[in-house]
Structures are given as C-alpha cells and as structure tokens.
Amino acid sequence: MKNIALIGYGVVGHGVADLLSRNADIIAKRAGEPIRLKRILTARPRTDDPRQELLTLNEDDVFGDCGVSVVVECVNDLEAAYRYCRRSLLAGKHYVTSNKNLIATYGMELTELADHNGVALMFEASVAAGIPVLRPLYKCLSSNHVTEVMGIVNGTTNYILTQMKREGRSFADALKRAQELGYAETDPSADVLGFDACRKLAILLSIAFGRYVRYGDIPTEGVTTVTASDIALAERLGYSIKLIAMGKLTPSDRVYARVSPLLIPHDHLLASVEDVFNAVSISADMAGDVLFYGRGAGAAPSASSIVGDVIDIVTNGRYNDPIWREDYRPLLPVDENVGALFVRTSPSEREKLLKLFPEGTAADEGGELGFITPPGPEAELREALRTSGVQSDATWRVFF
Ligand SMILES: NC(=O)c1ccc[n+]([C@@H]2O[C@H](COP(=O)([O-])OP(=O)(O)OC[C@H]3O[C@@H](n4cnc5c(N)ncnc54)[C@H](OP(=O)(O)O)[C@@H]3O)[C@@H](O)[C@H]2O)c1
Q: Residues 273, 369: one domain?
C-alpha cells in the first residue's frame, strides 16, 4: 500500500481524489500495490465533504507523516506551491504538480533539490493537462534531435477564436460565451494575453531542446486584438488564425520561440484543432512529425496525467529529466525570423501592396482587404510596409 497526500482541493484536486477511488483497481494493478489517498491539505475548512475525515488545515499532517511518500499538489498559488514543493522534497517525499507556473519559474532549482534529496519531481499535467506530451518527449523521443515544437496549448483562446470564426462573434462576445460555459475564468488575462501558453511553451522547449528556457524571454502576444474581420479575411485566403506556441532550433543551434496569433493553412494539422481542444506537434529527426491531440484542461484529463505520474513514481522510483540541470538558453531575436505577414487594410491599398510584393495574395471581404506577403526576413517585411506608407489596420504572422 502506497500512501499519498493531496494539496489543493479545487477542480483538479477533486479530479485526482475521484480518479483514485473510481479506478482504484486498475491503478493498483499497474502500480503493483494499492494507492491510498491519506490526507488532503486545504487552505480553508469545508463542511459536509464526503472525504471529511481526510481533510486537514495542518501542513504537518502531510510533511510530518513518514507514511506519506508522494505529495500531489494542485494549488493555484505560485508561492504557496513553491513552499510546499520545497518542503516536500526536503522531507524526502516525491512531488507531483499540475502547476505550470511553478515549473516554468522554479523548475531548474526544484529539480536540483529533488535530485539532491533522492526523490522525483513530476509535472505531466502542467502542459496540456490530459495529453501525454512531456513524458513522450523526454522518454519515447529521447534518441531524437527535436527540431520544432508547435502547439495550441490554451483551450480558452482556441474556443474564443473558433467561436469568432464559426459565429462571426467579436472577441468580447466570444469571451463572454466562454465565461458562461466555464471555459474562461472571471479574470481571463493569463489565457487571452498568452501568459499561460508562454509558460507551457517554456517547459516544452526546455525539454525538447535540452536547456532551460526562461518564460520571460519568450515574446508573447495574446488574442485580444484579433478581430472577426481578421478571421474572415484569413479564411478567404485559406488560413485559420490560432494562438500558436512554437519554438524551432535554427541551423546555428539557436532557438526561435514565440507565442502569438498565427495564420495556419487549412491543410495544416493544427488548423483543424477547434473549440477547447489542444494539440502539440513535434518534429524530430528520426520519428518525423508527431502529433499529440486531446483535452488540455478539465478535472478528469488533468487527474489522468497526475495519477499517471504517481504510478510512474511507485513503479520506477525517482526519475528526473536531466535537461533541467542545464543552464539557461538565450533565444534568437524575433526580428531574425523568416516568415510571411498578413495585412488587413482598405481595398484602396491593393495596388500599393501588389507593387511592393508582386507575388503576394489578396482577398476582399466585408469592405476590407486581406493581403499575404511572400516570405522574407520579418524585420525587412515590416520595414518595407512601413516605408511604403501602406495604411494597415492589423498585421499578423503567417505560418511558414
Ligand atoms: N483546471 C484545469 O483544467 C487545469 C489543467 C492543468 C493544470 N491546472 C493547474 O492546476 C492547478 C489547480 O487548478 P484548479 O483548476 O484546480 O484551480 P482551482 O479550482 O481554483 O483550485 C485551486 C485550489 O488551490 C487551493 N489553494 C490555494 N492556495 C492554497 C494553499 N496555500 N494551500 C492549500 N491549498 C491552496 C484552493 O484551496 P481552497 O479551495 O481550500 O481555498 C483551491 O482549492 C493550477 O496550478 C492550474 O494551473 C489546471
């Protein structure tokens, strides 16, 4: 019998407790012994909870109990999670977290601490929740050189953009609908400004490219200024607009990374990822292109990954991905990227744009013009647009 403790009893915490009882038989079979939830540490008291006898407000009931060998944390507070993680690792207890903020901010330091104390720190649910992507990256693809990671890793923004495309809603309307359905939080800024995707990308790239990527170094732009017109014009030109988190290794062994709205051609696999779904595509030298698709949020999908981590610890003991021990990796300045640009403007600018970029493509919709430049160094394309005096209402990047 392996005893575990849970910290944080919100959406994901409840999902973990439910999964441990619902699938207890298969979990015991796979882990080789039953896994028992012994304690749940909460921040505030609860009454009438069916697991009342497990609840505690006293941290010592978790960290001071030598019968608890694994701590699962599903807390939405970064500094509290950091404190719990340190305390757990120092007490020689394995730690499983769903907190992307914790790993993107303190991953390197905490992995060192876990190593030092001979325990595991695992975080599969922190990126894309129920989609197994981190472990396949650092285990199944470990013999490959990964060259590119590209994904839709925020379900809230993907739902909003899908609604804007399908229903022609404005950003504000689509956000309101997402909030009514529980897909967006009351304060949606971390999602719509791209911060959530940025932290997930930092974790993915650190693992994919073998050196710690600081999330603060990743240029990040959210979806708040994407309009229904941008989406309609992009559709006419054969593209969908998605919030894409991506990173690629350049031939000079530098990493270009970015989170931003991107026009994706309709025949690209990520263009068909709609609503709250997530997908991550990985390009590797031996395996080729690999796509992971599924539910990137929710109680049950998150719990699936968390309990998978617990079973891995119980069966394999301590395992920490070695990349987290390496130093920070500086990123390529975004201006050095080569790509194409989409411009939304007035139809009166068509001639000027075609003169500047004869190989560009244009489409009209609702009294506006959408124009896609040929590919080139991004900084040069922007400078050419600026100096030609084209009056652009919006400029977005195009997948290249
Ligand atoms: N929701 C998802 O789909 C999802 C998916 C993947 C990852 N995650 C991550 O999982 C974590 C939890 O998300 P959630 O959706 O479950 O959030 P949530 O429903 O808001 O629950 C957060 C929980 O954290 C608890 N908490 C806050 N400070 C605490 C402290 N100092 N000590 C103990 N508990 C504390 C709260 O406790 P009280 O209720 O007692 O106040 C609350 O139950 C976050 O890091 C999130 O980013 C969420």
A: no
